[in-house]
Amino acid sequence: MSATNKFNNINNSSKSLGEQMSDRIIQLIIENNWSIGDKLPNEYELADMLNVGRSTVREAIKALVSRNILEIRRGAGTFVSQKCGIVDDPLGLTFVKDKFKLALDLLEVRFMIEPGIAAIAAVEATEEEIQQMTILCNEIEALILKEEPYTEKDIEFHTAIAKSSKNLVMENLIPIINSSIAIFIDITSQELRKETIETHREVLNAITEHDSNGARDAMFLHLVYNRRNIKGVIKKRMND
Fold first, then answer.
1. What is the Cα–Cα distance from 116 to 188, expressed in whole angstroms?
2. Which helix (H) or strand (E) holds 116?
3. Where is pLDDT greater, at 160 or 100?
4. CA 70 to CA 25: how far, in whole Å?
5. Residue 70: what pLDDT?
6. What distance in Å separates the CA atoms of residue 81 and residue 92, rounded to the nearest whole number?
7. CA-CA distance, 178 to 169, in Å (whole number)?
8. CA–CA distance, 103 with 181 (Å, rounded to integer)
9. Which residue intervals of the chain are DSSP H helices?
10. What is the Cα–Cα distance from 65 to 59, expressed in whole angstroms?
11. What is the rounded distance in angstroms from the CA atom of residue 99 to the CA atom of residue 95?
């Protein structure tokens, strides 16, 4: 069966033609094993492959760009996005007004998943991944000791751990972890400097030694310190 005929067999009357073409382009990406950074055929070629007009292709591409699946590079073409469909704020947390309550709730979610992630990372992480974690850990320590902002590097450190778990679903949860870290550091004014250095190092050491239980415990302790500090900030705020 030709690609065109196969696509024509895909029909979802509940979706607009543009939405259906978005689904078909995603199918093309999967079937052709196009990876992050790969260039897609141009509009003319896609229109021919999908048996639709160029305006419909443009509509579909625009929708996929908004979903971080594709990116358009002016003068170069359309490419599979670096974010690979992952949105920066998948849960709409930007619009939550009570950041203190949000910080605690996000931390609860992290308690559910991050110790387990660290445990898996201790088993699955490659030497290259551990080396990258070590570099990030050292950079965070240096920034903290110089009393400089370290949010970005903190996020990169936790992201590296999550990715090294090799869990495909976990990669899509990374924005939730990132949001929690950014909000925590913001509302606590980076108060947990010493504890951050110590607990990050304990997590890293356990992963380096491929100590699954140790990594789980170290990450749990790291989150305990975070929760205690957030509650302290909230209590102080209520008493002011």
1. 25
2. helix 99-124
3. 160
4. 10
5. 92
6. 21
7. 15
8. 9
9. 3-8, 17-31, 43-50, 54-66, 99-124, 127-145, 151-164, 168-188, 193-208, 212-239
10. 10
11. 10
Confidence of residue 231 (pLDDT cuts 50, 70, 90): confident
pLDDT band at 190 (very low <50, low <70, confident <90, very high): low
Angle of helix 212-239 relative to helix 99-124, nearest 10 degrees, comes to 170
Dist. CA 184–CA 228, nearest whole Å? 11
Which residues, in sequence order, are CB contacts of 38 under 8 Å at separation 6+?
Answer: 79, 80
CA terminus-to-terminus distance, the chain: 71
Torsions phi, psi for 67 (to 5 deg): -95, 10
Please state, in angstroms and rounded to a whole number, the distance separating the CA atoms of residues 83 and 79: 11
pTM exceeds 0.70 for this model:
no
pLDDT tens column, 93-152 = 777 788 888 888 888 989 999 999 999 999 999 999 999 999 999 999 999 888 888 888
Q: Are 23 and 7 in contact (CB under 8 A)?
A: no
Helices (H), 53-98: 54-66
Tell me how far apart the alpha carbons of residues 141 and 202 are, in angstroms, rounded to a whole number. Answer: 13
Q: What is the Cα–Cα distance from 64 to 46, expressed in whole angstroms?
A: 14
Average pLDDT of the chain is 86
The pLDDT tens digits of the residues spanning 12-65 come to: 557 788 889 999 999 999 899 998 899 999 999 999 999 999 999 999 999 999
Query: What DSSP character marks residue 105?
Result: H
Amino acid 176: pLDDT? 74
What are the chain's domains? 3-80 (1.10.10.10), 93-239 (1.20.120.530)
